[in-house]
Design brief:
The complex is a heterodimer. By secondary structure, chain A is mainly beta. Chain A has no helices and 11 strands. In chain A, strands 2, 4, 5, 9, 10 and 11 form a 6-stranded mixed beta sheet that branches. Chain A has a 5-stranded antiparallel beta sheet with strand order 1-3-8-7-6, with no helix packed on it. The termini of chain B are far apart. Classes of the chains: A mainly beta, B mainly beta. Chains A and B meet through β5 and β10 of A and β4 and β5 of B.
């Protein structure tokens, strides 16, 4: 089992819909969770982070964390074609004292259709 | 410069050649990572530096891979005797802090070096 798992997609949604992206992680002691967006041929950029159980909203983005289920998700409201990208879940795993290490999932490709 | 700079942008190597990939992090950034990203995959951790100290090289695939950051700024990833499976994008990322990659000290990625081994 990989440490951070995501459905690779592609996930296709119509413009204006809600896109829901999911991620599970293996290390129950993990403390911090990040969502990065990566456009094709570009480098990843941070869009959201979350540390506590529950929801965190920033504009059209909402991150949700459930540590008991080892599950983190990203909701994108009012999806736009410009949101079409690969979304990478990253976890600051807390195993062996390596709290500096950010481990990424393989990413979910999102396509928003006009 | 304003961001993390990597060079070369593209590198084509014949199998068996040695290559050196350079990363110029943002000035003053303590943490520096190298990641390998194969096509259609997420970035895979290779190695981590805190200033000039290489604290973790557990992700380096073999002893053909070597990384250094001798003065705590510029870093070089060297791959000896390249193989076809080394073909990937190599991403360098730096951060002002350690372990806090929130908006306070986010991880800044360079544009990567795309290595193709023929």
């Amino acid at each position: 089992q990989k440490e951070v798992e995501q459905n690779s997609g592609p996930l296709s949604v119509p413009e204006g819909a809600i896109a829901s992206l999911n991620c599970t992680y293996s290390d129950r002691g993990s403390q911090s969770f990040f969502w990065y967006r990566q456009y094709s041929g570009k480098s990843p950029e941070l869009i959201m982070f979350i540390y506590s159980n529950g929801d965190k909203e920033d504009g059209r983005f909402t991150a949700q964390l459930n540590k008991a289920s080892q599950y983190v998700s990203l909701l994108i409201r009012d999806s736009q074609p410009s949101d079409s990208a690969t979304y990478l879940c990253a976890v600051n795993l807390n195993s062996g004292g390596s709290n500096y290490k950010l481990t990424f999932g393989k990413g979910t490709l999102l396509t928003v259709n006009p | 410069g304003a961001g993390v700079s990597q060079s070369p942008r593209y590198k084509v190597a014949k199998r068996g050649q040695d290559v050196a990939l350079r990363c110029d992090p943002i000035s003053g950034h303590v943490s520096l990572f190298w990641y390998q990203q194969a096509l259609g995959q997420g970035p895979e951790f290779l190695t981590y530096f805190q200033n000039e100290a290489q604290l973790d090289k557990s992700g380096l695939p073999s002893d053909r891979f070597f990384a250094e950051r001798p003065e705590g700024s510029v870093s070089t990833l060297k791959i000896q005797r390249t193989q076809q499976e080394d073909s990937a994008v190599y991403l360098c990322a730096s951060s002002l802090g350690v372990a806090d990659y929130s908006y306070n000290s986010p991880l800044h990625f360079g544009n990567g070096t795309r290595l193709t081994v023929t």
